[in-house]
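Chain A, query sequence.
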Amino acid sequence: MNFKRPEEECGIFGIFNHQEASNLTYLGLYALQHRGQEACGIVSSDGGQLHAHKAMGLVADVFGDQEIFKKLPGRAAIGHVRYSTAGSSIIKNTQPIMVEYSRGAIAVAHNGNIVNAQLIRSELEAYGSIFQTSMDTEIIVHLLATAREDSLVDRITSALERVEGAYCLLFLTESRMIAVRDPYGFRPLCLGRQGGAYVVASESCALDLIEAEFIREIEPGEMVIIDKNGMTSCFPWKKIEPQPCIFEFVYFARPDSYIFGKNVYMVRKEMGRQLAREHGIDADVVIAVPDSGVPAAMGFAEEAGIPFELGLIRNHYVGRTFIEPQQSIRHFGVKIKLNPVRELLQGKRVVVIDDSIVRGTTSRKIVKMVRNAGASEVHMRISSPPTSYPCYYGIDTPNRKELISASHSIEEIRKYITADSLGYLSPEGLDMSVGAVPGSFCKACFSGEYPIKFQNMGREPQMDLFEKEYVK
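Chain A, predicted structure.
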């Protein structure tokens, strides 16, 4: 039976002008593993040719053999960890994509989602284009290859003028690396330096691992060109008001990362403090649903003056699949992932902090688990507003009919998960926690107000990302 856990998006990493480019890219991807566990790949450049190694699986498994790095020579490399937001989970959809076209070889790594991809693909196919994958990223490659402009920068500019949606991109040729962030800045992307080498990564935690200096975040709508002469930057598209994804703070980014001008851990802790202000409760102990709920739970406990304890212990050694007894243990999937510490919970009024509720099935199982461990009361607190709408900008979420808050009131959800009380962080409280001016972040998953509208919005099912069911 399949083991289900919250899926992520994708992560990208690149380094230019370092003698151990491929090895450092491997380490960078290792730091970004939380953003995707389906597949990974690295493409390197030795100055005259591109070399690739890609496979399904975790970074440590795919690149576990040192002999692989002998096949990835050169002083430049880009890498990608994947969770499929567009395209099925098969080896041919593994990134970076590497192609040969009239101007030479190029590789592309992409984090995001092109919302008008199907429309462009149909148009390209009508003119004879042949696609090798089902990924929206390949559309960018076709647009680049068919562009009429002479320079690569102009070709990339022309190609991206056609697409709508979220994209952080890394391009690698024999002689340069180019990073691009879409004008809305939906996904994070940062720039660093390691000695004489430039580094680009989805999150700053990847820079920390290789001891690279954090320079700055790549700005929305910016293109950064890195070659033997150094780094240049341009803003080739019309400037618009950025709308970075606020759910990066809620769940996706690593707590030690610095994104959108903030440290993720400190933001999550403030979410917990604000949650306590809005939904305080008389209780004996605060616990978190690990791992993403921990900073918010610590903030809640501090603000409420209630002790924080590690009341739920997570098993970090669960693989993507496991064999389940037929009926010998009920709710086996949750039990293999989480286990309560009975001595901390027995006879206690317990506050359980989590980052979100999607379908509600896992929250229901967790509440029952805590009660079975002897808790006298179980109060559920969520460090984000109700998730009521799907995301179309690089996160593969359930469609709206599967989101419990889309069709049920908070009181109905409380009854379903069998908690004694339930409280969500308000949208205003989320803004305050992030230190954001209202409207400065994309909160479409909470509000349904999408920064980019497109024809098929709401018709294409997007499945299984926020879902916190551990067994289906």
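The radius of gyration is 23 Å. Residues 399 and 460 are 8 Å apart (CA to CA).
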